[in-house]
Amino acid sequence: MRRYLNPFMLLFTTFVFSAYAYARYQLSPNLLVDVLLFVPFLAVWLTPILFWMGEKSENRPWAHSFQTFSYLSMGWLNFIFVTLIPLNIITWLLFATDKKELALAFDRWTMPLTFIFGTLALFVGFYRAKSGPRIREVAVPLKAITVQSSLNNLRIVQISDLHVGPTIRRPYVEKVVTKSNALLPDLVVLTGDIVDGSIKDLKFHAEPLAGLKARLGVFLILGNHDYYSGAPAWVAEFKTMGFTVLLNEHSRLNKDGEEFMLAGVLDPAVQGFSPEQKPDPALARGKPELSHDLLRILLAHNPKLAAEGARAGFHLQISGHTHAGQFIPWTWVTKLVHRPHYAGLSKEGDMTVYVSAGTGSWGPPLRLGTSPELTLLTLKPAVR
């Protein structure tokens, strides 16, 4: 399987290196502190090497355990840094205001407080990630729906950014399927980044997805990680599961005698594999005159496609990709990068956009400042 190094992984690894260097400098480490900081840092540093080795290592018994430890090490160093910065600022402010004795006393507590709060954040974040996803119910008001419409109260379950892979295994996938089926949806939509690895390694863990049930069917689009994981093989596998895969195309569905359109587009990552292809909401919709009187829903993994979706005349875009930042401080960074379509409901012109915070987790299995979600979208008429 061909491997592509995710730019975010490069950014995150650089951040972790900086966090390690800063923490080691500020905490004036003794041998124990040195070891506590260096061992996780070494694990993080080895991760890109294992990433590039790819299939040479991922099938070995130790690989999964090491990857989990490495990802948790990333998160721990991240939280150490995030904890240390405000503690240092307090110390500096005390010195700056001539409260030297108090500053020195506080400085002596900086190291233990950093390790206590950093480790506590790690455990809380790990628990929140592994205990998910929580069911998030969202009412989506749309002007294209009337009170009398058969599409009023249409129930759509969204599964996004599941990332079946090193830290999301079969038991978690089974839990997602059980929760989804219990909601009795009209539609299930999987909005990309469902897998994080080759079909050879992950078929067993992804198999429970075949048990997803919905009155009008299960529909899927690809995200960037699905392309990195070998999209052609996974598309074939998803089709054997009974999913309809939408690749710049649409399906016309009927609920109780009323038709509506469900379209899906490619992810921009496709251009790294097939430069001639690109996401195209207009192509996915087809001739406008054939659907001008229909409710039109677009599945687009990356919410940055919202402007194109609105221009193509869709009423609702359902997206993922952002994870809502997954954990602090990336929750803040992601909000800046992806606003206004960061998480939850927003508007792009006349089109409504919903962005899931993600059903699983990528990289460190951590959630702090956000939660993994299984989303139940219920379509409602907008107040006129």
Helix content: 40-55%
Q: Could you name the CATH topology of the largest domain?
A: Purple Acid Phosphatase, chain A, domain 2
Strand content: 15-25%
What do we call the CATH homologous superfamily of the largest domain? Metallo-dependent phosphatases
What is the terminal-to-terminal distance?
52 Å
> Which runs of at least 5 residues are low in confidence (pLDDT < 50)?
none
How many strand units? 12
Q: What strand line-up does the widest sheet have?
A: 1-12-2-3-4-5
Average pLDDT taken over every residue: 90
How are the SSEs ordered, and which strands pair?
Layout: H1 7-26, H2 31-53, H3 55-58, H4 61-96, H5 100-130, E1 134-142, E2 155-159, H6 170-182, E3 187-191, H7 199-206, E4 218-221, H8 224-228, H9 231-240, E5 244-245, E6 249-255, E7 258-264, H10 281-285, E8 295-299, H11 306-311, E9 316-319, H12 330-338, E10 344-348, E11 351-355, E12 373-381
Parallel strand pairs: 1-12, 2-3, 3-4, 4-5, 7-8, 8-9, 9-11
Antiparallel strand pairs: 2-12, 6-7, 10-11
Helix pairs in contact: 1-2, 1-4, 2-4, 4-5
